[in-house]
Every structure is written in structure tokens, then in C-alpha cells.
Amino acid sequence: MGAEPYGIDPNVVESVAREVKAVAGTGVELAVVIGGGNIFRGLAATATGMERASADYMGMLATVLNSLALQNSLEHIGVETRVLSAIEMKELAEPYIRRRAVRHLEKKRVVIFAAGTGNPYFTTDTAAALRAMEIGAEVIMKATKVDGVYDSDPVKNKDAKKYDELSYIEVLQKGLKVMDATAISLCMDNNLPIIVFNLKTAGNIKKAINGDKVGTIVRGKA
Question: Which pTM does this prediction carry?
Fold first, then answer.
């Protein structure tokens, strides 16, 4: 949503698309999971009295809007993409089928996973971890507004300490907001590393793919 209070900022979408194109151009197989908080937050809605399942489904639909926006931007700059939705809406996106997703990746298409897991009570973080396991991803890259994981909010605390590396257990024990506990547990059980990085810094995704030190890495042993 950029600097706006809500909605989709075309300049931000274009910026993300350029970052994705730079990585896809190297031949790396890349899948993207997008949240919907810029349009609708399910948990926030429940605080106002909305029933949780309904609020979560609305949040999933918001991720579809974002996925279509990114797809449009990517294809505008020559990147072939496919949007696979966990909630069937065949006029807009392909239904999520694991083997189909893997096939698209093998053909070097950028795959965008929409609508979370298709189930309420599960976050986009959990959807990202689940899809990563299903397609055999080597790493999850968690895009944020800061350059890694800190022991407190670096925006509010100038003395906040940044971690270069953490274990899954440390993330859970310290209550660090890397991803939600379900997603972290999934990654821990399957030994899938997580790189937390700043999406606003141009070239960060490509640097991480090339093995350069970017952000904070979360893995089995720190």
C-alpha cells in the first residue's frame, strides 16, 4: 500500500515486480505468497465483533486482489506468471494443485500462491510455510520493512539489537515476530531456513539468492 493508509500503490507493485524479475532472470525457480493486510485484516476485523471464519475468508480474497495486481505488473515487464488460488475462482486464477505448481516452476514461470491455505484460522505466514514444503523450496524469504529481526521494534527503539542468525527455538522462546508460531514450527519440523530481509532495499532478493549476507537467517542451529 506504500504511503497510503490502505489499498494498492502501483509504484510499490512495480518495484516488487522488478525485484522478482531480477531473480527470475537468473533461472531460479521462484514462488510468491502475498498477504492481504493492505486491503483487509481478518484478525483486526474480529476485534470489532466480526465472526473469525468470515473475516479470514475476506482476508483470503484480499490476497487474490494483490496477487492479480502483481501478476499484471510482472507480465507487463515480460515475466511469465501463474496465479494459483486455494479458493477456486477459475475465471481469475488456476486452482491450487501441487503438481501443477511444480510444473509451472519447472517451466521457469513465477508462481503466485493466492488465498492463503484456503482455510480460516491460518495466516499467510503459515500458507507460505506450507506451500514451501509442498513444492520442495530450499528457503523462505520473508519480506519486511526492516533489515532483519531485532530484539525490539527498531522504529521505536534506536538501541534495538539486530540478530544476524537465530534458531527456530530462540524465535519461539523470545516471542520474536518473525512469522507466527505455526509457520515457525512447520519450518523447524522440516528444517527449512527463513531469511528475513528488507524488501525496500533494491537487490536484496537477488543478493540472498547469490549467497550474500542479507537480513537475518533463522535455521536449526544458531
Answer: 0.93
